[in-house]
Write a structure and sequence with these properties.
alpha/beta; Rossmann fold; Membrane-bound Lytic Murein Transglycosylase D, Chain A; 3 domains; seven-stranded parallel beta sheet; 25% helix; globular
């Protein structure tokens, strides 16, 4: 049995049923799969999706017994059931925030990522929604209230802990994150987010720790409400195949903070940032001098890009403002950039946006061997790139190298390399690998 270090919720087990398991009704499912397990209810938190995965419907099993030993015993029992693909505890993830250091400046991060130049291209659109899976958002804050998304049922989002529409932030973490993404710009008060004009959805998955089951339900909610970008400033060392599956079936871009242990995620993964899903961007944190923050996780293979994350000034509770540190603060810079780009070119796909963000990063030698792109987010370069050339995606075949692909498509090798930061070795290209081809 795996060692879960006690970081999970008592009384709940997440169960992914086999894709090929068909049942006529919930009662039949419960009698077949959960026979002999005392439980109060079975809650579907992510529906079955058509895919090659062995995972079908994902449910949250509420146990009668509230002792953690019962959770581990139930996981062990269900893991060998023929109709179960995976069973896991409801892990509790930590926020990616560290205690404040002395102030470094006022919105220094916007200058670093060249946001003022990018605002000549676009300042956002109310048609773009960014979901913030976090502690909620203080939707009454005057610097973000008009940018809050309102659901069809009239709420600013959803509370996946209490399963109701009250998603008010009680800790300030989610509000700070939301402010960096989309605090109202040019309104004579407070600050401006990366994307001045956007709709931000409050998807509350916890307070000081975040529930895996709540996060899964929030991702399903984002799919159901066509929310194209999710910011996820949280994580932990627990590998969850169920969470990986859920993110794979999220139809949007999933921005994830890399974590605050000062560790190499290539060897000590932090999830969800370290999943290899195509729709994830993993974000490290930098200081005002563009060096990697001492607390930031890194990884030349597993962390895609860096963004400001030390002494970041943003919204706080009750209409206030504060400085905070962490990769929790760096991820929303990238989420805001993605929203800004989507507002400018709505037809861009998830992979288009991800590839443009990574390919336009500012290279910094001290980030070599630390970050996949060796770079820091550059929002202006993002717009220069999409205005300078378009990209098509080529699927590599056996025997391809970047040199051969460049010659085949008539593009300069250095441009091809710049457009494909995910390629570590130009000589090693795998059949089926997606290659971005820049075209003037």
């Amino acid at each position: 049995m795996p060692n879960y270090h006690d970081n999970f919720e008592a009384g709940k087990v997440i169960v992914a049923l086999n894709q090929n398991y068909a049942y006529p009704c919930a009662a039949t499912r419960n009698a077949s799969v959960f026979h002999g397990i005392e439980h109060t209810k079975v809650e579907v938190i992510f529906p079955s999706k058509e895919s090659a995965s062995d995972i079908g419907e994902i449910v949250l099993l509420h146990l009668v017994c509230q002792e953690k030993a019962t959770v581990t015993n139930t996981v062990e029992k269900l893991s060998v059931h023929p109709h179960v693909a995976h069973a896991e505890p409801n892990f509790l993830f930590g926020r990616h925030i560290v205690p404040n250091d002395p102030y470094y400046g006022y919105l220094w991060g916007m200058e670093t990522i060249k946001a003022p130049l990018a605002w000549n291209y676009a300042t956002g659109s109310a048609d773009i929604v960014v979901g913030v899976t976090d502690s909620g958002i203080d939707y009454n804050h005057p610097d973000i209230n008009d940018n809050m998304w309102v659901s069809p049922s009239g709420y600013y989002g959803w509370n996946f802990i209490n399963n109701d529409g009250e998603s008010m932030d009680m800790t300030g973490h989610g509000t700070h994150v939301a402010g960096t993404i989309g605090a109202i710009g040019n309104n004579f008060i407070g600050i401006a987010g990366v994307c001045w004009n956007v709709k931000v959805a409050s998807l509350r998955i916890g307070n000081t720790v975040f529930s895996l089951a709540a996060a899964i339900a929030a991702i399903d909610y984002a799919n159901a409400n066509n929310i194209p970008i999710l910011n996820n400033s949280w994580g932990g060392r627990y590998y969850s195949p169920i969470l990986k599956h859920t993110i794979e079936h999220y139809s949007g871009l999933f921005i994830a903070s890399a974590g605050n242990d000062g560790a190499n995620n290539d060897f000590f993964p932090d999830y969800p940032a370290s999943f290899d899903n195509d729709n994830i961007i993993s974000v490290a944190a930098t200081n005002p001098d563009n060096t990697l923050a001492s607390f930031s996780n890194y990884g030349a293979r597993s962390v895609d890009i860096a963004a400001p994350g030390a002494a970041v000034f943003s919204l706080s509770l009750n209409g206030e403002y504060s400085y905070q540190d962490g990769t929790s603060m760096s991820a929303p810079h990238v989420a805001g950039a993605a929203a800004l780009l989507k507002s400018y070119m709505p037809s861009l796909t998830v992979l288009d946006i991800k590839n443009i963000i990574l390919a336009s990063a500012d290279k910094h030698p001290h980030l070599d061997d630390k970050i996949l792109t060796s770079g820091i987010l550059n929002v202006n370069a993002m717009f220069e790139m999409v205005n300078g050339f378009s990209m098509v995606v080529y699927t590599a075949v056996a025997g391809d190298s970047l040199w051969q692909i460049a010659a085949k498509h008539g593009v300069a090798l250095n441009e091809l390399i710049a457009a494909n930061p995910q390629i570590a070795n130009p000589n090693i290209i795998y059949p089926g690998q997606k290659i971005n081809i820049p075209g003037k």
